[in-house]
Write a structure and sequence with these properties.
With 218 residues, this protein is mainly beta. It has one domain. Helix content is 2%, strand content 51%. The chain is built from 1 helix and 17 strands. It has a 9-stranded mixed beta barrel with strand order 1-14-13-10-9-7-6-3-16.
Length: 218
């Protein structure tokens, strides 16, 4: 039985990942025959708004309306699916930012931009089954910048060595990043007084191949 692979993330960039449970055999594009091959490009788009949560994990600090991710499959088979995300653009409905050329997100304290610092993000399945790990370039902690005219640039780094998540399977297969400081928390490492000391991300998106085939688990 095929299931859509829906990515539900509450975390940093990595936010975004296309992954397969370690117990599954392969990721398949439903709009084309055969498994998704190594080297195939995959795109991802969010479902609903993207929220930057306070440490309690329930109160939003900021929100954005759009995520566009582009990645490449690096492994698919023998129970493992892995890949990289080379583009992770987060934008909103505000004016175009001079920092990254994207429309700024909006918040009560003013518009802001979001940029992942250490692309590409690396996504892989890890033991135990149905657990995924997301890191930044060269396996480092994920880092990103939230910047505004009020707060300036606030740079964050994931609290743990990797962002972690788990799958839940119903009519669709959903990946949820662990909603804890250990799982999805990020702490400020550079910035001024107005920078929140810690944030967690909450977002959902699904992935497909560039020809429009949904990524499924068989």
């Amino acid at each position: 039985m095929y299931k859509k692979l829906i990515l539900s993330c509450m975390a940093v960039a990595a936010f975004a990942a296309f992954v397969l449970p370690a117990t599954a055999s392969a990721a398949t594009g439903t709009g084309k025959a055969g498994d998704v091959a190594v080297g195939v490009s995959i795109t991802g788009k969010n479902i609903g708004d993207i929220f930057f949560m306070r440490t309690d994990g329930t109160t939003p600090e900021f929100a954005c309306t759009s995520v566009h991710a582009v990645g490449t499959v690096t492994q698919n088979g023998a129970g493992v699916f892995a890949g990289t995300i080379s583009t992770f653009n987060v934008s909103g409905t505000g004016s175009v930012s001079a920092h990254n050329g994207l429309n700024e997100c909006t918040a009560g304290i003013g518009n802001f931009f979001f940029t992942v610092v250490n692309l590409p993000l690396l996504i892989t399945t890890v033991a135990p089954a149905d657990v995924v790990s997301i890191t930044g370039k060269e396996g480092k902690k994920v880092r990103f910048i939230i910047g505004s005219t009020v707060a300036g640039e606030c740079e964050y780094e994931s609290t743990s060595a990797a962002i972690t998540g788990t799958f839940t399977t119903a009519a669709t297969t959903v990946l949820s990043i662990n909603n804890t400081q250990a799982g999805s928390g990020s702490k400020v490492i550079r910035g001024g007084f107005f920078c929140p000391t810690s944030v967690q991300l909450k977002m959902s998106f699904f992935l497909q191949t560039t020809n429009g085939a949904e990524i499924s688990i068989s």
